[in-house]
Design brief:
Elements (H helix, E strand, L loop, with lengths): L6 H4 L5 H36 L5 E7 L5 E7 L24 H9 L6 H6 L4 E3 L25 E3 L1 H5 L6 H14 L2 H17 L19
Parallel strand pairs: 3-4
Antiparallel strand pairs: 1-2
Length: 219
């Protein structure tokens, strides 16, 4: 990432107290949710181990704020080693790498629960652009790199509005819109809309069940 394309050089002005409130809310909310949901998380991890060989937790290096890498945590929904099989990071219609339990976890977004630990550690926020794999760092244009000026989130404007149904250019533009219009009230709105989207199971994938490989220019 060149100096001229550094997100910090292009970032909208932020008031430190608002970012402090955002971080404080993340710590309190993630700690409470982990305390309440740990029995469910433990049961799901056990079921994953019993129904599919391999670890219950899937780890992947993702890009955090300012493009710094961190290890994102998810409940494993595919067969162990799926990234090196078939379509790689993309998911095709009826992808056989997804386990039977994994389909349920993806449909309900329960596979994202371990990311509450990422939030508590300060690697993520409850709300922000979704963190993408490290291998994509050099594929963003200058405008798209604005997404790295805010903490990356479990959910975001793009996830509340389109999730995997929207094209990659649309999702990246929604990320930038979020950065440019961010407020604490917008975060609350996104959390509310995300809950509704998850309950209604809107936008988990395209109609054929596929999830496209990352293509910032949709080429």
């Amino acid at each position: 990432m060149s100096a001229s394309a550094n997100p910090q050089n292009m970032a909208p002005a932020r008031s430190s107290w608002r970012l402090g409130v955002k971080r404080g809310a993340d710590v309190v909310a993630s700690a409470i949710l982990l305390a309440v949901l740990w029995p469910l998380l433990a049961i799901l991890m056990l079921l994953i181990r019993l129904t599919s060989p391999g670890p219950a937790i899937f780890r992947q290096d993702r890009l955090g704020r300012r493009g710094r890498p961190f290890s994102l945590l998810k409940l494993r929904t595919m067969v162990h080693g799926a990234e090196s099989m078939g379509a790689g990071l993309a998911i095709t219609s009826g992808d056989r790498r997804i386990t039977r339990l994994g389909k349920l976890l993806r449909a309900t977004s329960l596979d994202e629960l371990p990311q509450l630990w990422n939030v508590l550690r300060g690697e993520m926020s409850l709300v922000g652009p979704r963190p993408l794999p490290v291998r994509y760092l050099h594929r963003f244009n200058d405008r798209q790199r604005l997404r790295f000026t805010m903490p990356q989130g479990i959910t975001g404007w793009a996830q509340a509005r389109g999730r995997n149904v929207a094209s990659w250019p649309e999702r990246l533009e929604m990320d930038v819109w979020y950065v440019e219009h961010w407020s604490l009230l917008l975060d609350v709105r996104i959390l509310a809309e995300t809950v509704l989207a998850v309950v209604a199971r809107r936008g988990v994938s395209a109609e054929d069940g596929s999830v496209k490989e990352f293509q910032p220019d949709d080429s």
